[in-house]
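Ticket opened by: R.M.
Priority: normal
Category: complex prediction / small molecule

The reporter submitted a protein together with 5-amino-5-deoxy-1-O-phosphono-D-mannitol and asked that the result be attached to this ticket for the collaborator who will pick it up next week. Submitted input follows.
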Amino acid sequence: MCGIVGYIGNNDSKSILLHGLEKLEYRGYDSAGIAVLNDEGVNLTKVKGRIVNLKERVDESIQATMGIGHTRWATHGVPSITNAHPHQSSSGKFTIVHNGVIENYQDLKKEYLSDVSFVSETDTEVVVQLIEKLYNQYQDTVKAFREAMGLLKGSYAIGMIDADDSETLYVSKNKSPLLIGLGEDFNVIASDAMATLNETDQYLEIIDKEIVLVSRNDVQIQKLNGSIVERKPYTAKIDASDIEKGTYPHYMLKEIDEQPIVIRNIIKEYQDENNQLKLDESIRQAMDKADRVYIIAAGTSYHAGLVGKEFIEKLAKIPTEVHVASEFSYNMPLLSEKPLFIFISQSGETADSRSVLVKIKEMGHPALTITNVPGSTLSREADYTLHLHAGPEIAVASTKAYTAQIAVLSILASDTAKAKGLELEFDLMQELAIVSSAMEVLTDQKEEIEQLTRDFLSTTRNAFFIGRSGDYNVSLEGALKLKEISYIQAEGFAGGELKHGTIALIEEGTPVIALATHENVNYSIRGNVQEVVARGANALIISMKGLEQDTDSFVLPKVHELLTPLVSVIPLQLLAYYAALHRDCDVDKPRNLAKSVTVE
Ligand code: M6R
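Result attached by the on-call engineer:
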């Protein structure tokens, strides 16, 4: 959600900024812009739409060795050129890019800026005007910048250029992600290391409310009170080739296909040389101490949490609750005496989850983050981290992170069970290896799934996904996948729940996708299918080897019953993919969505 790139060095900054913004496209955006500074002053280019449009607009003849760029996901004001970043102060001295939401922008406007006329509807323009107002008072950019940052409430990552100073990029952040990348005779700033991996793999973390002065050869980090902070860089361990599409038409398809290998990676990473589960002792102890686990997550990660609850309760015998992050803080349940919070987040940057993390840390509770990005905010701020080892996930629709989250949760639950001396009736790693092979079989069945998409989803406006028990959790994920990328209205339901109201929506031809992978509910879910078919539904039954019947459209290879979500989700991901493709939707960058949701 919004992306920032900045460069200061000896090379032309335009291509570095544009390349960086392309790498941030996956985060979701609706307009973009860059500002570069040279002897002639600041040159600004902004567009509504995609980076490809921005590239066409940028004046190739301008050479500038310093600049900032931005992709905007609209919050305050419609997507438009006027509201796109960078924004400038009235005199043009200051130019900024900003991610996040300034909660007190109306108050700041009233208190400090009543005489200023604004051109955009954004909260960002208030920030840049405020800096100019303070500069006019102090005639000192650092002081004005620092004081302005101190006045902001809310979330922000900010990069700023002063038109009279070609030696410094001014940077600060609070809650929103931003990193400094270090190079030889240049430095960069980026929302995400992926944007600037071509330039460097050395990064410096910025802590909330710090001010950073970035020049070609130096980076100075200050606290808000002006004291200097020393910090060592770290190496970003991302393989640049992981973030290329290769021969795939879309990242989503590539990431669906990567799932078998991701499961194998997870097996490798979480197993020692004696084939025993390998987990940090501190995590084991935290699980052991907990009298209740609270899983906090959003979207697909929340759906993975629902599956994880089953593992933790069935295997480790710890009562577990799963909560939608955006609701938890406002409606906190009565907590147990020794809670352990588990945050599940692909990006590790989801603002809703982070606000819960901040709250529960203030209350003194321990937290474990399960994430694909170990250096992310949720990872840094929690007590413990479990890494998904899924490789960068670029498509907005989460696929391989979901299955990786489930696999890691199964390992956490089994490890806890073993540590507690509980007997497991199966060898988890062996069962995960079987899952990985089953996934391979499924990803090879694309033609069959594409045909099913044509048969069931080609013209429909809506679709229902039903399942019971563990299949219900997956039906929620199947519905989310379909709606977010194909815009078909889709809902997941517990099989028995439809007849309590929603069955009224079933009409002649309404697609109902039913999962039947659990023996104990095989007959009852099929009964629910009969109920909708009797009312005209077009039923697509996905069952599992051993439970299949003649009416089934697709049969999954057999895996351990607890692990069925890892395989049953794959045909649902592919159905969503082909439905979006057939409707000419932008598969990897669906409208209105962002990969990393960094505002609450
Ligand atoms: O990065 P996170 O896992 O915290 O993101 C949570 C959701 O925003 C994310 O899963 C979202 O629902 C995906 N677009 C679904 O495909």
